[in-house]
Amino acid sequence: MRKKLETYFEFTALGTDWRTEVLAGFTTFVTMAYIIFVNPSILADAGMPVAATTAATCLSAALGSILMGAFAKYPIALAPGMGLNAYFTYSVVKGMGVSWQTALGAVFLSGVIFLLLTLGGVRKLILESIPRDLYSAVAVGIGLFIAFIGFRNAGIVVPDAATTVTLGNLRSPGTLLSLFGLLLVSALMARGVRAAMLIGIILTTLAGAAVGLVKWNPTPYSFAEISATFMQLDVKGALSLGLIEIVFVFLFVDLFDNIGTLVAVGKRARLFDDAGRIPRVNRILTCDALATTAGSLSGTSTVVSYIESAAGVVAGGRSGVTAIVCGLLFVAAMFVAPMFGVIPTQATAPALIVVGALMLGHAAEIDWHDPLASIPAFLTITAIPLTFSIANGLAFGFSVWTLLQVTAGRWRSIHWLVYLLTALFVARFFYLGAG
């Protein structure tokens, strides 16, 4: 059985083994486990019960990640997406006065449309229409995005009214703990320790506990409480209200956030073939669509591929076993969720910073001497962290790439789908800027 599994997951071709894959799965899970607590806290503002959404978060992440690993065979984990959960709560439910049940119905519809677009090959065409230079630019931009999140979580970078951001208090105990973790993870990686990320997170957590920075306050919790949101979506209400705009936003942002994540993780894990394509890409997109649909049925907002998967890839994860291990840990978390609250953001922040640093290496793949490539790439790289959105960065760079190709007289060689996507991107920017 073991040999059959190794053959199925292509261990030999990928140059990996069980120990590496399991450690990578643990690393990915620990890096993204914050979603177990952050997602329910956001959805609580929409009036949804915390215990139920905690269970739904774990269930949807488990299903999505295991499906991705077993069916698509890639080291990409899934969970309810940050940003889309905020849109769900603050724009749809609170801003438009829509019930959370109806909003879940809109998420369900977007998932079904996703699946139809995937089965029809449309999403694959969109992915393949992205210029090769922008693939590298997205990977670099997401690297900066991840690093920025890490700096923010560590307290190294803080908001400032005059300069937008500024240096935080480096003498703060939490920031000092993150700096210790950053040095530790970096030193372990410099010495070639493959489990550097996981070891660094664990030792940093233990160091925080030793000095009283880690607090563990478990709360009563039962997986059975998911019944408060399970199958409570109102699809009929979503259709009757004509929430086309809401469904479109869920669909659009999820589509390009996932494409950005797929490109970034794919570049880091060397998943692209010689022709610049990702094998079995339709399987990846199908897993994403099914996970979103399952998430809406269980009681949570849109499920997406997580860029934190790059942490597992850096730890050596190359096959679907990494995602399956991460998914199984989410299964465990469904029943013991409070236990995972012991890992502070200060302990995972160093891993995010290091992953971001490693992803910047893809900048060397961009032709910086060609303005037709370098300008869209630069705009993509900078817009992702500065707008705090993978979708915005990809949309900005893609649109400018198309416009520059047209002004250079190369408009005949551009695929019709590129023009359609550019028009949608431009319309999206006008829509987002209308408020």
How is this fold's topology laid out?
Blueprint: H1 2-8, H2 11-14, H3 18-32, H4 35-44, H5 50-72, E1 78-80, H6 84-96, H7 100-119, H8 122-129, H9 132-154, E2 157-160, E3 164-167, H10 173-190, H11 196-210, H12 235-240, H13 244-269, H14 281-298, E4 303-305, H15 309-314, H16 320-336, H17 345-359, H18 371-387, H19 390-407, H20 416-432
Antiparallel strand pairs: 1-4, 2-3
Helix pairs in contact: 3-16, 4-5, 4-6, 5-14, 5-16, 7-13, 7-14, 9-13, 9-17, 9-18, 9-19, 10-11, 10-17, 11-17, 13-19, 18-19, 19-20
Structure description:
This protein is mostly helical and 435 residues long. The protein has a domain of 254 residues. The chain has 20 helices and four strands. It has a two-stranded antiparallel ribbon with strand order 1-4. A two-stranded antiparallel ribbon has the order 2-3. A hairpin with a 3-residue loop joins strand 2 and strand 3. Helix 3 crosses helix 16 and helix 18 packs antiparallel against helix 19. The longest helix has 26 residues. It is globular, with a radius of gyration of 21 Å.
Helix count, DSSP H or I runs of 4 or more residues = 20
What order do the helices and strands follow?
Answer: HHHHHEHHHHEEHHHHHEHHHHHH
**Uncertain spans:** none
If strands are numbered along the chain, what order do they take across the biggest sheet? 1-4
Morphology call: globular
Radius of gyration: 21 Å
Quick check: average pLDDT? 83
What's the helical proportion of residues?
55-70%
Short account of what is shown:
The chain has 435 residues and is mostly helical. The protein is built from 20 helices and 4 strands. The model has no long low-confidence stretch (mean pLDDT 83).
